[in-house]
Write a structure and sequence with these properties.
Radius of gyration: 28 Å
Strand content: 15-25%
Helix content: 40-55%
Distance between the termini: 57 Å
Number of helices: 26
Strand order of the largest sheet: 1-9-6-2-5-3-4
Number of strands: 23
Largest sheet: 7 strands, mixed
Length: about 675
């Protein structure tokens, strides 16, 4: 009944008249400040143009229309709520183009027809006004439609924004702003973004990012002119973060009073090779080097995989902003070794402090970061809450959230809400993950893709490569990489089946956790297999069946030497490991059915024929043997895999674009404290 009433012509006519009068009231009672001072001249210089704004800030759109005559058409969706908007715009002399982009839901919302009509309008000399972000979000992520329209029409995209210092914000996907009268009103018009007519997919993505950046800059300038704070800025959201519930307070108390156990824990980890003795003080928050001067960005990655994903981000910031200090913390010896080898000049590596309030506070007191960037799923409560308490912006990049983890966090809102609301921005690997972070309380999430698709492959030790290649020469070799308990047995059974056809077969096993090497050796020796352990300095001999590479940081070496690799964690319900590294180093990928941790990559690979899925030892033996013996089949899979990985790329420039909003201008770099 209410829906029918709201869509009736009389109600829409009355509502649009009232809304139009309200917009005039806000404009006429406000002090208007513009950048540039003559926004009309800047707009007319590009007419006809694609006039872009964010959905959450389009309320005052009709009053940015130049006073001089100009033919303007506005793109408006077809759903019921849009009828009122259409009526308002019509009262300001704008004609309408009905339809909108589909967004991630992929519904038909008339986008194709709207694109055709918009193209026709631009060709006829009409400016087209449209929101760059697409319902149902995420907010402030430019869609592909606007850049495609610019490519087809040859007309520029001009980013614009209007903001008032007095406003109300709705609780919808775009945090839609209702401007209030008797305000300061800022109007900002940015520089045009032009898209070449021959732009390929990479150029279109670069243009989309440029539109996003231009709109964010215009929006920030409009709020600056108005003397107001953007409602979607992380600093605003942090103030309203929920207070920690009992479970979180209990955790904080427990970790504080458990401090006497920390030396015992670290001593044990040192004995088994998981800590560097000389750097143990860093685990108590004691810095081993001075803090760089100026603005400092602190990155935290758990281990090698996360560090490898974020290192290109660190490299890009070091290149674009050489004045900015960079700190990377990790928690493992392997990742520390990677950081020493790959961090750009001037960047600092430290071990992350144990999650104890006093250790974390000591760490933060020394380093005083101006921006904190965590990687993937590193949610240590004390680390998050103590950083947030200092009003340091928190961003999570390459964010992922399995359904199991999401369900666990969702069932404990008193624990999850204070933590996830502390992150002003989460850059998620896909829309599914982004929605989960939003549901847990993150104020802004953007799906940008998986950084691991853009990351370079693991390093290959050239000296070790030559020696090992000589030992493997003349043998048929395949690899079981990053294996978990239960998979070593499967690899051994597959080895025995394959050896009947290839007596020279050598199976290399690289366990996910190298300390399992001796246990695996005893297990397989019990099956009458001849085993050699790399940790004992051995190389495979002519009679070696299984070579166990139980060393740290050498996976890239083996990917580079073998033609076929089973990616572990997938034949047992662990969730799989990263297949991209193997492909980039030339190994054809075989996987089990359990690959949920890397669903985006495996879905693309399997759909395109760039990987093969098996279920047990027999299907593994059959598939691996086929790929080892058929070079043409292997080449086809590799070609398809490389194409799939190329399609998955693009997360790096999107991540950099989003982080730019937190970085200071190059000319005015100052430390926040």
């Amino acid at each position: 009944m209410a829906k029918r009433l709201s869509s009736s012509e009389s109600v829409v006519a009355f509502g649009s008249a009232v809304a139009a009068a309200y917009i005039r009231l806000v404009y006429n009672t406000s002090e208007v400040l513009r950048d540039p001072p003559d926004t009309d001249a800047k707009l007319f210089s590009e007419h006809p143009q694609i006039f872009a704004m964010w959905h959450g800030q389009f309320g005052m759109l009709p009053k940015i229309k130049p006073d001089r005559p100009a033919d303007v058409a506005a793109m408006v969706a077809r759903h019921g709520d849009a009828e009122l908007i259409a009526g308002v715009l019509s009262r300001f002399g704008m004609r309408l183009i009905r339809g909108a982009g589909a967004g991630y839901r992929r519904r038909n919302r008339g986008g194709a027809a709207a694109l055709r009509e918009s193209l026709k309008a631009l060709q006829q000399g009409t400016t087209v006004a449209m929101t760059a972000d697409v319902a149902p979000g995420p907010a402030r992520k430019a869609g592909n439609g606007i850049v495609m329209l610019a490519k087809l029409s040859g007309r520029p995209i001009v980013p614009c924004a209007m903001a008032t210092n007095r406003y109300l914000t709705l609780n919808n996907w775009s945090a839609f702003t209702i401007n209030l009268p008797f305000s300061k009103l800022g109007i900002a018009v940015g520089d045009p973004v032009r898209v070449p007519e021959d732009a390929d997919s990479a150029a279109l993505e670069a243009a989309r990012i440029a539109v996003e950046r231009g709109l964010n800059q215009a929006t920030a300038r409009a709020y600056e002119l108005a003397g107001a704070t953007d409602p979607l800025l992380p600093a605003v959201q942090v103030k309203d973060a929920p207070k920690p519930a009992f479970a979180l307070r209990a955790y904080r108390a427990l970790t504080r009073y458990a401090a006497p156990v920390a030396p015992l824990l670290l001593a044990w980890r040192t004995r088994i090779g998981k800590e560097e003795p000389a750097r143990r003080p860093e685990r108590y928050g004691e810095a081993s080097v001075p803090r760089p001067s100026g603005f400092l960005v602190w990155f935290h990655a758990a281990s090698v995989g996360e560090a490898n994903a974020v290192l290109p981000v660190i490299d890009a910031i070091a290149t674009e902003h050489p004045e900015i200090g960079l700190l990377l913390t990790t928690g493992t010896v392997t990742s520390a070794k990677l950081a020493r080898a790959r961090l750009p000049k001037g960047a600092v590596h430290q071990y992350v402090p144990l999650d104890n309030q006093d250790y974390v506070r000591r760490f933060l007191k020394h380093w005083q970061p101006d921006l904190t960037v965590f990687v993937e799923s590193e949610i240590w409560p004390n680390l998050v809450l103590e950083t947030n308490a200092l009003n340091v912006p928190l961003v999570l990049v390459n964010g992922r959230m399995s359904f199991r983890s999401f369900r666990r966090w969702r069932n404990r809102p008193g624990l999850s809400r204070p933590l996830f609301s502390a992150f002003g921005l989460v850059l998620a690997q896909n829309e599914r993950f982004a929605q989960r972070f939003t549901a847990l309380g993150t104020p802004r999430t953007v799906a940008v893709g998986n950084l691991k698709a853009d990351a370079p492959p693991p390093p290959v030790d050239l000296a070790g490569h030559k020696k090992l290649a000589a030992a493997l020469a003349g043998r048929t070799v395949w690899l079981a990489a990053s294996t978990h308990p239960g998979e070593d047995d499967i690899a051994a059974v597959a080895h025995l089946a394959m050896k009947k056809a290839r007596p020279d077969l050598l199976t290399v096993i690289v366990p996910r956790h190298p300390e399992r090497g001796p246990f695996i050796a005893r297990l397989l020796e019990g099956a009458n297999l001849k085993v050699a352990l790399r940790s004992e300095g051995k190389l495979p001999e002519a009679g070696t069946d299984i070579y166990i590479a139980d060393t740290i940081g050498e996976l890239g070496l083996f990917y580079n030497l073998v033609p076929v690799a089973l990616i572990g964690g997938s034949l047992v319900p662990h969730g799989g490991q990263n297949p991209v590294e193997a492909i980039k180093l030339g190994a054809a990928v075989v996987t089990g059915p359990h690959w949920r941790n890397f669903a985006d990559a495996y879905e693309e690979l399997l759909a395109s024929g760039g990987a093969v899925q098996v279920s047990d030892a027999q299907s593994l033996a059959t598939t691996a043997l086929l790929l080892l013996e058929n070079a043409q089949a292997r080449a086809r899979i590799m070609s398809r895999a490389e194409g799939a990985i190329a399609r998955l790329g693009g997360a790096l420039p999107r991540t950099i674009s989003e982080l730019e909003q937190f970085l200071p201008p190059k000319a005015t770099l100052q430390h926040a404290s």
